[in-house]
Write a structure and sequence with these properties.
There is one protein chain. The chain has ten helices and 16 strands. It has helices spanning 3-24, 29-34, 40-56, 62-76, 108-117, 130-139, 202-213, 220-242, 261-266, 273-277, and strands spanning 80-81, 93-100, 122-126, 144-148, 151-155, 159-163, 168-170, 173-175, 179-186, 189-196, 248-253, 271-272, 279-280, 297-301, 306-312, 323-328. Strands 4-5-3-2-16-15 form a six-stranded mixed β-sheet. By secondary structure, it is of the alpha+beta class. It is 38% helix and 24% strand. The mean pLDDT is 90. The N and C termini lie far apart (61 Å). Helix 3 (40-56) runs antiparallel to helix 4 (62-76) and helix 5 runs parallel beside helix 6.
């Protein structure tokens, strides 16, 4: 076979891989599992193929490899090149921070140290515990705090109207929607802030891994049920957010990666801080392994607000990196 035809096949496979993730996503169990895989391997394969072309030619075929690499980098891996935005003169701003605390299992001291160093105005913790909440509150004297199940909110500004949404029917059971809403009276005006943490796909991914390896569970019903619950939780968040009386901020561990159909269909109408003003990949999970490869922790906002800067953490107080964003409310 000619080199051009072989490289064309490589490019077609990359396009098909992206299309399966983008258009099938969680609707098909295999593509749904691949959403959570480290996609860096695709880039490494392209590098291996490109090296002999660079050394021995024909070098014109490197254009095909460059196209495939761009598809992987930007569409599959989620590379962002936006960068910070200038602040509107006179417009008030605040810093929102979200952090999956991982129940404080790693290091509460490191978690609190990094959180306080970020100088947030509003802190949203998920998967938190009372001893973590107490440590964070002690590090932010004067902040208003609220707690609900796994969620903890600390704010420099007054908090009110904590809403715990009703449970979601799923089959014969009712499940938690895994979010809360609170109204925060900020210099930007009153904001309806959602602290969210849809269910993890971990159990479903373990079932897929067992099926692929020929051992363990291969219960597709469990996989479908897990996906459907995450979909309904995202839909419940979106439904309440659309009905909000004030500008909306949605932040937390979404458990929905870059090409998630669930995220696009339910939460895609809101601005994503990293997509708007980030630079790089902005991966927040998993921390403590060789490298993080998913951007699942997010800060979203409605059209009345505007993101200025965004950043991720660098320590290992949790199995997630924290995420912060500066947001303003420009004059109409």
């Amino acid at each position: 076979r000619s080199p051009s035809r072989g490289l064309g096949d490589v490019y077609k496979r990359q396009v098909l891989y992206w299309a399966a993730l983008r258009f099938l996503g969680e609707d098909f169990w295999i593509s749904g599992a691949l959403l959570y895989a480290p996609h860096l391997i695709l880039l490494l394969v392209l590098g291996v193929v490109a090296l002999p072309l660079l050394l021995f030619g024909p070098r014109r075929l490197l254009l095909v490899q460059a196209g495939a690499a761009a598809l992987v980098l930007f569409e599959v891996m989620g590379l962002v090149l936006s960068g910070p935005a200038p602040q509107t003169p006179g417009a008030p701003r605040m810093r929102v921070l979200t952090f999956n605390a991982g129940s404080g299992r790693r290091s509460v001291a490191e978690l609190v140290r990094e959180l306080a160093a970020a100088q947030p105005d509003l802190v949203l913790l998920q998967e938190s515990e009372p001893h973590v909440n107490d440590a964070v509150a002690a590090a932010l004297p004067g902040f208003h705090t609220l707690t609900s199940t796994q969620f903890f909110i600390a704010s420099e500004y007054p908090l009110s109207d904590l809403v715990e949404p009703p449970k979601i029917p799923l089959g014969d059971a009712e499940r938690s929607p895994r979010f809360v809403r609170v109204t925060v009276d900020t210099p930007l005006g009153k904001l309806d802030v959602f602290n969210i943490h849809p269910i993890s796909p971990r159990d479903a991914l373990e079932a897929v891994r067992g099926a692929v390896r020929g051992g363990g569970s291969d219960d597709r019903a469990d996989i479908s049920s897990n996906t459907e619950l995450r979909r309904r939780q995202a839909q419940a968040i979106a439904q309440m957010a659309r009905a909000s009386a004030h500008p909306v901020v949605i932040a937390g561990d979404t458990n929905l990666p870059q090409l998630s159909r669930i995220f696009a269909d339910s939460l895609g109408q809101w601005q994503d801080a990293f997509a708007a003003v980030g630079r790089g990949f902005g991966y927040t999970f998993p921390v403590g392994r060789r490298f993080a490869w998913m951007r699942i922790d997010r800060i979203l906002a409605g059209p009345e607000l505007r993101f200025l800067r965004v950043g991720t953490g660098a320590q290992r107080g949790s199995d997630h990196y924290l995420l912060w964003a500066d947001v303003e409310r420009p004059p109409r």
